[in-house]
Amino acid sequence: MKTLLFAAIAMLPLIATAQQPTLPAGVTVWPKGMPPQGIKHKDAYGTHILSISHREKDGMVEVHDSKSDVMIIQSGEARLVVGGKGINMHSTGVGEWQGTSIEGGITILVGPGDVIHIPAKTPHQFFLLKPGTQITYMLVKVIEP
Questions:
Q1: Over 90: is that where the pLDDT of 19 sits?
Q2: What is the pTM (predicted TM-score) of this model?
């Protein structure tokens, strides 16, 4: 019995380091919600983009002309302001806008496990609850036709 136990223990490093199978083309796995290439990595698929966003300070107002955002909060909490009208908006690229604040938006508290869908052309902005806090979320940008 001891011999069998020692043999099983000796095999643990082999099991832990075993090669993952090669996935079919187009299949992506981010173990535990993080891209293997690091937090700044993005995967683009033509109709959608996968990325991780991490904020340690308040965000700017964002508006995307042809992309909807789907967010899945992984950690932290923040106030999310959505809707209304973006103030002091300026272009940051084709169909992408940022501004300083939102007039007439709705504020909600978001935290781990929350799933958020923000349609294209909808102003949105994150505010951290207090200095020193953070929020991390999986972001799927859905490119509309």
A1: no
A2: 0.80
